[in-house]
Design brief:
Family: Belongs to the TVP23 family.
Helix content: 55-70%
Protein name: Golgi apparatus membrane protein TVP23 homolog
Structural class: mainly alpha
Largest sheet: 3 strands, mixed
Subcellular location: Membrane
Membrane topology: Multi-pass membrane protein
Pfam family, one: DUF846
Strand order of the largest sheet: 1-4-3
Oligomer: single chain
Length: 182
């Protein structure tokens, strides 16, 4: 697997003007995640049929995956990732990018993005463990789908933000500066 290095820019600013925020984008970033979790917990009240609940939740998870990968990551934190498959040999090439123009992002939106991106797979892991303990393996399969989709987005954005050479260099510089101050 080849990985292209992402350019790491200082993308967070507390002073982004109100008109530059992405309220609707932030809403949908949280909405699809929350709706899938809500349906997992309370779906039985709407439909007693497991298949209907399964399909609705998987659709919500797919909407969330696509929205986070293609819209909210780019607008809220200035990051994006994708995978290309080489047609000749079938190898994968993962590409990670940071916003090239250096535009700043709203700190509140960035916190919302990262908090929900990190918490969502953790919540689905708890649900998966609960499904295993209660011997509900069909629900466990659904949780595995959710963990896979939300975990893939988390991994992709982690690689974009924290695994580039620039980010490692910034961390090393910070550590050296901190150690020299002590």
């Amino acid at each position: 697997m080849q990985v292209d290095e992402a350019e790491n820019l200082d993308l967070v600013d507390e002073e982004v003007p109100e008109e530059k925020t992405h309220k609707v984008t932030t809403l949908f970033h949280v909405l699809f995640k929350g709706a899938a979790i809500f349906m997992y917990i309370f779906g039985w009240a709407f439909a007693k049929n497991f298949v209907i609940n399964f399909v609705v939740i998987v659709l919500l998870l797919a909407f969330d995956f696509w929205t986070v990968k293609n819209v909210t990551g780019r607008l809220l934190v200035g990051l994006r990732w994708w995978n290309e498959v080489n047609e000749e040999d079938g190898s994968n090439k993962w590409i990670f990018e940071s916003r090239p123009d250096g535009k700043l992002v709203n700190a509140g939106e960035a916190r919302t993005f990262w908090t929900t991106l990190i918490l969502t797979p953790l919540i689905w892991i708890v649900f998966a463990l609960s499904a295993i303990i209660s011997w509900k393996f069909q629900w466990f399969i659904l949780c595995c789908v959710a963990i896979t989709l939300s975990g893939t987005n988390l991994w992709g954005y982690y690689k974009c933000r924290y695994d580039s050479n620039t980010a490692k260099q910034a961390l090393a510089n910070y550590a050296v500066g901190f150690m020299s101050a002590v």
